[in-house]
């Protein structure tokens, strides 16, 4: 969604973090794979192999602004929600990233709340046309 705001190095590091979040709950779902594929396509980077780097480096150096740090967390949460749920281990892993980014609890709560709302709206939008919707005046 916002990866176009990142430099090549920031996108590469983000994709490492995204893979770590997907691995956090010890299960890989098709929606997670599809989400990761979309992120690679959006970032303009080729999908990596199993031997790709698994460390993102100094996150405070890579993401120096409040905006870039918020984008990292929003995007990671959207990856975590891609299978329809935020697993507690995924949330915990993203909270650790937030701590590395020195995100305060209030900002984390706001980002988490927004991501929950967005995930619900995205799921609702995906269901449009697939089932009969009640009339607005009912």
TrEMBL record:
Residues 47-110 form the Co-chaperone DjlA N-terminal domain. InterPro entries: DjlA_N, TerB-like. Transmembrane segments: none annotated. It holds the Pfam family TerB. This is Co-chaperone DjlA N-terminal domain-containing protein.
